[in-house]
């Protein structure tokens, strides 16, 4: 295996160098219909909220306690720390606040944005989502005080779903759809009708920073929260490395809170076994030192024919929580190895998309494979100059090494015949990120301010070598096995691209009337330097150095404690598309100037005490590239208007609900190809709906049943809207049993995905590849807290 070593040479901090050895380890309903739906829903929610008594959000202890059906659960030990000598109401840093375990519910409203020692905002009633999330530059913000639609999924929800990856964990978010195949090497998404994480630079944020998380897939072993901030966020989070503007997926890593020793063994069909460990400890007189180590090993055959997967994950989180100085160090190493990985399909022009085959069938040859290794590190630091002023600095990076040998099948006719040319692909990706700044809180008269200034640098370098095999034919309904081919690797990986993204940003959240009115104002000056090189050669083909200013304005008005009206205007920024290097394109390899995306959004959030809802309406527009008369240029524009409704919490103490619906009206508003104007963009359905529920059975103490229904409307795989894939619905069912064995809390979980065995095309990527939906899959596990 070839692993590029260039990335780590940029690190000058001795601590990072010392750790190097470890790291080696449908169209939416017509607009009038949508508007009527929105008006009705909004009116109903507001009426319910107005007559409801003011909500009392859940305290961290209430949200964290086990459901009443838990049998003989051992009492959790609470960490006590030395009280601070300073006034707690003058918060010096949102990342170090601690919610008191015995706080009254009424007080928890004011404490929503206060993370616990483990670094996360407390969960909402039901424990599936949190009471707030990170808003990039604005930091941790309570849901009711946020001018954006954001959802944070908890570790408990992730474990109960037996979600192995970030894509699995986001299955019940109605604004998000995975745009990758089950059993594939990449987790990519559509958020609000725009692609995210399609490319080789990686667009998962990690603790709010790009360039740290593994490039292609996030495994949940090291995840405490997965947060989804919906909509563009250049001013808040910076430009996304692949140009995604639909939203930001942020990984909040596990860190030491209460002492924990947890082991899990699991099994997934057809014959895949695994084990997971999670250990946390705190040390010192005031428990100021923390360590948390977690990881897993899984191996075996998947439910997809001829496919096997081996994954290994190791992570370590160290932290120091002093009186004024705080520091965190995160280390992640993961490997993901596939034999016969699932691949997306291309469709020959003018040919209708055939009916989807059985999800177990696999046209990938048994001798095709993929090997991906990731190593990541992040060192974060904070220092309180005063009670109101905090300095911060972060440094980190990641390295990804890819070696793979497989093709991209093209379906050539309605009989399902395919052609594919296997290709050896050797890729090295090195990324670094640095940022620093100051946070300050102060008053000007009756106006309170929370100001953040930040300077940031992100840099990536990609090196790639491609070689081709020979053509293979098969059929989606009756896959054939072709004679074995071997990867033809040539030494050396020429530079493919590099980029540097720099930013200077400032944001101020102004609040009055005891935070009844909050106004967030921010701006980021973003520099974009990009170089593109000739494939397999490494000579410079094109470059540019551009800059742009992106603002953000967000308003929250809280007429009642449990009602928030919000609105925002925010822009997204993307690196320009690269003209394809192919026959008929005269400017192949040219990088287009950066694109600016614009979002307008308004909505209402209502907290009914143990159930919360969010209704939002938005419009996002963004330019894109297309080829006309032999030249590739930024002459197209996509606009997506949408209505979103989310609900989460407890309908009653033994019934929990999570889900919602998203109505999307996607339109190509501009195109040099006039016949496409007014068409639906590739991959954008008109409806996305999810509903998940859990029920603690009253006659079987400790037993919980759960289920989910997922629906996605029709999508197009071509810009001319002549090749649709039909809508689909999937049913998932499961159960878990919580008990104690020898005094140790033990949880048995069983889930069946796609219970009915529905065959369907699941999703479409922005460049027109589409994917086969998952077959019926069985998952079982046993978790023991020692």
UniProtKB/TrEMBL annotation:
Looking at the record, the residues that make up the TonB-dependent receptor-like beta-barrel domain are 346-755
Where in the cell does this protein reside?
Cell outer membrane
Q: Which domain of life is it from?
A: Bacteria
> Has the keyword Protein transport been applied to this entry?
no
Region (Disordered) location = 77-99
The record's section on PANTHER family has:
FCUA PROTEIN, FERRICHROME IRON RECEPTOR-RELATED
- Protein's name according to its UniProt entry: Putative ferric siderophore receptor
Q: Which gene encodes it?
A: blr3555
């Amino acid at each position: 295996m070839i692993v590029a070593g260039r990335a780590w040479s940029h690190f000058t901090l001795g601590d990072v160098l010392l750790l190097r050895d470890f790291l080696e380890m449908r169209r939416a309903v017509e607009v009038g219909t949508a508007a009527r739906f929105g008006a009705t829903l909004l009116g109903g929610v507001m009426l319910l909220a107005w007559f409801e008594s003011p909500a009392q959000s859940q305290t961290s202890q209430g949200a964290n306690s086990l459901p009443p059906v838990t049998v003989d659960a051992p009492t959790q030990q609470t960490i006590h720390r030395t009280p601070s000598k300073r006034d707690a109401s003058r918060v010096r840093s949102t990342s170090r606040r601690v919610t008191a375990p015995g706080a009254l519910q009424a007080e928890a409203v004011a404490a929503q944005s206060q993370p616990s020692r483990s670094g996360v905002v407390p969960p909402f009633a039901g424990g599936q989502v949190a009471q707030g999330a990170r808003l990039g530059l604005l930091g941790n913000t309570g849901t009711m005080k946020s001018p954006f639609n954001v959802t944070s999924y908890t570790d408990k929800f992730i474990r109960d779903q037996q979600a192995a990856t970030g894509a699995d964990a986001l299955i019940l978010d109605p604004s998000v759809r995975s745009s990758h195949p089950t059993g594939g090497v990449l987790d990519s998404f559509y958020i609000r009708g725009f692609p995210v994480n399609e490319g080789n630079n990686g667009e998962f944020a990690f603790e709010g920073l790009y360039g740290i998380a593994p490039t292609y897939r996030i495994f949940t072993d090291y995840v405490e929260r997965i947060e989804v901030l919906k909509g563009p966020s250049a001013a808040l989070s910076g430009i996304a490395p692949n140009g995604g503007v639909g939203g930001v997926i942020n990984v909040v890593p596990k860190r030491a809170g209460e002492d924990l020793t947890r082991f899990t063994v699991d099994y997934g069909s057809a014959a895949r076994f695994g084990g997971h460990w999670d250990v946390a400890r705190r040390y010192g007189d005031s428990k100021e030192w923390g360590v948390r180590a977690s990881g897993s090993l899984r191996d075996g055959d998947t439910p997809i024919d001829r496919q096997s997967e081996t994954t290994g994950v190791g992570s370590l989180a160290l932290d120091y929580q002093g009186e004024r100085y705080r520091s965190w160090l995160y280390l992640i190493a993961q490997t993901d190895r596939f034999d016969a990985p699932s691949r997306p399909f291309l469709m020959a022009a003018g040919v209708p998309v055939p009916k989807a085959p059985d999800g177990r069938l696999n046209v990938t040859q048994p001798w095709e494979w993929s090997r991906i290794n990731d190593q990541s590190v992040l060192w974060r630091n904070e220092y309180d100059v005063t009670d109101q002023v905090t300095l911060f600095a972060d440094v980190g990076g990641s390295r990804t090494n890819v070696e793979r040998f497989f093709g991209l099948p093209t379906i050539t006719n309605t009989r399902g015949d395919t052609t594919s040319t296997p290709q050896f692909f050797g890729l090295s990706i090195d990324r670094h990120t640095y940022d620093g700044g100051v946070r300050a809180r102060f008053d000007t008269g009756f106006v309170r301010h929370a100001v953040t200034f930040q300077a940031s640098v992100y840099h990536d370098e990609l090196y790639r070598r491609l070689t081709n095999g020979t053509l293979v034919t098969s059929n989606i309904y009756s896959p054939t096995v072709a004679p074995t081919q071997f990867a033809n690797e040539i030494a050396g990986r020429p530079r493919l691209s590099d980029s540097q993204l720099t930013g200077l940003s400032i944001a101020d959240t102004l609040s009055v009337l005891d935070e009844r009115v909050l106004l967030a104002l921010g701006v980021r000056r973003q520099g974009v330097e990009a170089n593109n090189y000739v494939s397999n050669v490494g000579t410079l083909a094109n470059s540019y150095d551009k800059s742009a200013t992106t603002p953000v304005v967000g308003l929250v008005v809280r007429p009642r404690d449990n009602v928030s009206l919000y609105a925002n205007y925010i822009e997204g920024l993307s690196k320009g598309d690269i003209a394809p290097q192919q026959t008929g394109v005269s400017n192949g390899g040219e990088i287009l100037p950066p694109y600016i995306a614009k979002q307008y959004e308004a909505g209402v959030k209502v907290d009914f005490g143990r159930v919360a809802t969010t209704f939002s309406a938005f419009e996002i527009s963004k330019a894109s590239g297309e080829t006309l008369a032999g030249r590739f240029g930024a002459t197209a524009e996509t606009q997506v208007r949408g209505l979103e409704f989310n609900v989460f919490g407890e309908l009653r103490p033994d019934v929990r609900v999570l889900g919602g619906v998203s109505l999307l009206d996607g339109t190509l508003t501009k195109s040099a190809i006039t016949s496409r104007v007014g068409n639906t963009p590739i991959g954008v359905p008109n409806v996305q709906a999810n509903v998940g529920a859990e029920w603690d059975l009253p006659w079987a103490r400790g037993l919980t049943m759960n289920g989910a229904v997922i629906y996605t409307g029709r999508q197009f795989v071509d810009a001319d809207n002549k090749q649709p894939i039909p809508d689909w619905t999937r049913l998932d069912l499961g159960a878990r049993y919580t008990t104690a064995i020898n005094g140790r809390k033990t949880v048995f979980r069983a889930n069946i995905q796609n219970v009915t065995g529905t065959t369907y095309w699941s999703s479409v990527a922005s460049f027109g590849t589409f994917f086969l939906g998952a077959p019926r899959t069985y998952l079982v596990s046993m978790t023991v807290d020692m």
